[in-house]
Amino acid sequence: MTSTKDDRKDKDLTSLPPVTGRMRLFITAIFFLLGFGLAAFLFSNPFDISFLPGGTMKMSDQEETPPAKPEEATQLWTCPMHPQVMEKAPGKCPICGMELVPASPQGAPPPQGAAKTKSKGERKVKYWQAPMDPTYISDRPGKSPMGMDLVPVYEEEGGEGESREGVVKINPAIVQQIGVRTEAVRVGPLKIVIRTVGILDYNEKSVFWVNTKFDGWIEKVYVNYIGEKVRKGQRLFDIYSPELVSTQEEYLTAIKYLRKLRETGTQDVVRQAEALVSATRKRLAYWDITDAQIERLEKTRKAVKTLTVVSPARGDIIEKMDTALEGMYVKGGMNLYKVANLATVWVHADVYESQLQWVRPGLETEIALPYFPGRKYAGKVLYLYPFVSEKTRTMRACIEVNNPDGRLEPGMYADVWIKPQVSPLAVQVPEEAVIQTGERNVVFVALGEGRFMARDVVLGAKGEGGMFEIKEGLHEGERVVVSAQFMLDSESKLQEFIRKLMAPSGDHKS
Fold first, then answer.
1. Strand 315-320 relative to strand 186-191: parallel, antiparallel, unpaired?
2. Each residue's pLDDT tens digit, 165-181
3. Can you count the helices (H) and strands (E) in the chain?
4. pLDDT classification of 61: cutoffs 50, 70, 90
5. At residue 493, what are phi and psi to the nearest 5 degrees?
6. Which backbone phi and psi does 261 adopt, to 5 degrees?
7. How far apart are CA 72 and CA 368, in angstroms?
8. Residue 442 confidence (pLDDT)
9. Confidence band, pLDDT 50/70/90 cuts, at residue 133
């Protein structure tokens, strides 16, 4: 019983007394009085606090304080390939590692022409685009499939040139970062270089055959092997011919008869004897007996058994009828030696059908041989063969080349450069400026202020130094892009794709 009483005492000490009706009325009155007093204090503002109703403190200070200056512009840095990357200091892009470039600073004054824009109203959003997927576009803000906020793309207001089809506009800082270079279109003489290959051959105008016009036997040979060099008039071989011996005797008899008739005969008979001597001498000359040999015959007045045949020209022996000529019987007209003069040689070069329009006789050429590195020989085109090879679809050009040191030999392989002049006044641009797609030839013309226009051109010949002739599409003085134009081409195609996509309706997604 005692423990029960103690527990009851402890329970009474920790529990609150029950709330009566009078206590509720008292608490309500206290809260009401406190609220009324606080409201009266706030509205009366006895301490003249400035932010309370009726406060006048520091009003003069506010009137004297000049208006706050606009927040200074903050320079940000962005990635040329990932515009969503924005940093407060220069560095490298965390995605691709490219150097960051200055972006338009926050709070910076509007660019030139902004006043006109503001007078007309705010810039109009053309469409919304995903920052990581430029092909994803929409006519309203939202999220891209990657969960990123779409960014606005504004209509161009920079003038008529920027609204034309094919014009690409890029931030000048990015233009410098990606290395866009331009060159002026120039007009001047254009020479093309036709490079081909050729084989050296003998100059056919300097090749001579050695033969006899009578039958006989070769008794002695003075030149025995191919490749031996001979001079004009050098002995080649001695030949015995009964017909030649009898003709010599007839000539000597005619001379003796003429001398007797001049002493005793009449004038008519003397003329007949002179005609006989002349006819016999001509027969010897027709057999290639030289004047010196005939004069020696006249002085000695004795017919020789053998006649010495000499070389008709200076050159090399390039052919010989047999390994052993001595003692051989030959018939009239049989070729025994072939002599070629190598002071000049010919080069037979193959020219493709598409290049024939530029090749003509008289063009200056250069040849080089792998046997003599660094040495070039000058020549000129003599003529073109009047047919095209059915197998190679080429026409052969004959080029004459001087051989002053005698090092050029027929049969050698040569590289040939033919340099015709296409036009004295040709519009031309560097080869790097032209994007050749197979169906179109495109160049990018720099319009200034970061604007570039894609323009189709008609190409002519490709000239020396990597220059292309432009027949249509460009004019002298215009500047064309010669590097990084593939990036411009990608941007141009992207804008064209978006333009076509936006034309039918306002919301297209790729």
1. unpaired
2. 567 777 777 777 777 88
3. 10, 30
4. very low
5. -65, -35
6. -65, -35
7. 69
8. 86
9. low
Question: With contact defined as beta carbons under 8 Å apart, do 257 and 273 qualify?
Answer: yes
Rg of the chain on CA atoms, in Å: 54
Three-class DSSP category at 67? coil
Segments in 212-310 forming alpha helices (H)? 242-264, 267-286, 291-300
Residue type, 58: K
d(CA 128, CA 145): 13
Q: Pick the closest to residue 351 from 416, 396, 401, 400 (CA basis).
A: 396
Q: Give the angle 491-497-502 at the CA atoms, nearest 5°.
A: 125
Q: Is residue 426 within a helix (H) or strand (E), and if so which, with residue range?
A: strand 421-430
Which residues 6+ apart lie within 8 Å of 273 measured at CB? 254, 257, 258, 261, 265
Rounded to an integer, what distance in angstroms lies between the CA atom of residue 341 and that of residue 66?
A: 105
Phi/psi at 490 (5° precision): -65, -45
Tokens of 198: 């050729």
Residue 108's pLDDT is 46
Question: Residue 46: CB partners within 8 Å, gap ≥ 6?
Answer: none
Contacts with 320 (C-beta within 8 Å, 6 or more apart), sequence order:
225, 226, 336, 337, 338
Give me the amino acid identity at 406. G
Residue at 292: amino acid letter? A
Strand 182-184 relative to strand 479-481, pairing: antiparallel
Give the span between the Cα atoms of 298 and 186, in whole angstroms. 77
3-state DSSP helix/strand/coil percent for the chain, to nearest 5? Answer: 30, 35, 40
Nearest to 248 by CA among 276, 218, 280, 211: 280
Other C-beta atoms lying within 10 Å of the C-beta of residue 242: 12
Q: Six-digit token pair at 155?
A: 């209509």
Q: Rounded to two decimals, what is the model's pTM?
A: 0.55
Do residues 334 and 355 touch, judged by C-beta distance below 8 A?
no
Given a contact cutoff of 8 angstroms between Cβ atoms, the answer to whether 418 and 396 are in contact is no
CA distances from 468 to 351, 367, 460 (A): 21, 24, 7
DSSP 320-353: ES-S--TT-EE-TT-EEEEEE--SEEEEEEEEEG
What span, in angstroms and rounded, lies between the C-alpha atoms of 257 and 255?
A: 5
Q: Which of 481, 474, 383, 393 is nearest to 430 (CA)?
A: 481
Whether 178 and 96 have beta carbons less than 8 Å apart is answered as: no
- β-pairing, 86-87 vs 101-102, is unpaired
Q: How many residues appear in the chain?
A: 510
Q: Are 469 and 422 in contact (CB under 8 A)?
A: yes
User: Which residues fall within 8 angstroms of residue 457, CB to CB, at 6 or more apart?
Assistant: 434, 441, 442, 443, 470, 471, 472, 473, 474
Find how far residue 411's CA is from the centre of its chain: 33
Direct distance between the N- and C-terminal alpha carbons of the chain, in angstroms, rounded to an integer = 89
Q: Is 145 helix (H, G, I), strand (E, B) or coil?
A: coil
CB 380 within 8 A of CB 438: no
